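Following up on my earlier thread - several people asked me to post the actual chain instead of describing it. Fair enough. Here it is, all 258 residues.
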Amino acid sequence: MTAAVFFGCTFIAFGPAIALFVFTVSREPLRVIFLIAGAFFWLVSLLLSSLVWFISVQISDKSSLSQQKSLLIFGVVLSVLLQETFRFAYYKLLKKANEGLLTLSQEETMPISIKQLAYVSGLGFGFMSGAFSVVNILADSAGPGTVGIHGDSQHYFLSSAFMTMAIILLHLFWGVVFFDGCEKQRWWAVAAVIASHLTVSCLTFQNPQYVASLVPTYVIMFLMGVWAFYCAGGSLRNLKLCLTCTDKDFLLANHRAR
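Reply from S.P.:
Thanks for posting it. Predicted structure:
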């Protein structure tokens, strides 16, 4: 793999997430703190799932292909369930920290809303998930060896980059929908997040038939993005006003005397 392909895949995988971080998170120290905390919670969930996986592999029959395949499926399901469990634990922790944040801010309102917390925590989950998904693949891309030399797909690294980008954005959308479901006690929404997360994770079993995994994943990402947009308070009307710069309330609020 050439340096251009290496950095190109890295840009595809992390470009949108880095842009979101720079323009919406990096200027607010409180948001950065919650993003890092969200990444830490995801990391702990990975640690626990890896521990269970390691123990399961050691006690299993390594010569049995069917048993190893079953363990792989078990590991994926366990990892998803632990990630969503820790997402819920992070939500509960943030709710309990509301009074402390109010005291520190010395204001009548929260310095950061629950919707903003959902956004930054989801982005934190996505960053850490993406890092573990693609970093090892990119490291191996330097060689030795040539992808596709035995007739396999030569788009392995490119497909991995697009899948990583989708996973990062999905974690962001899942975070918004999950927190909104918890806030409004819409547990069916929480269940939908878990089900879609399991679906996307299981779609990777279709590889190396990358079309069979990428296309459904991006369809789910689009649907979850629309859902997250409405959960965050968006609507077709304010989207149109924003894109056409005709939101008079926004323009007046940001007007400054010259």
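The first helix runs from residue 3 to 24. That should answer part of your original question.
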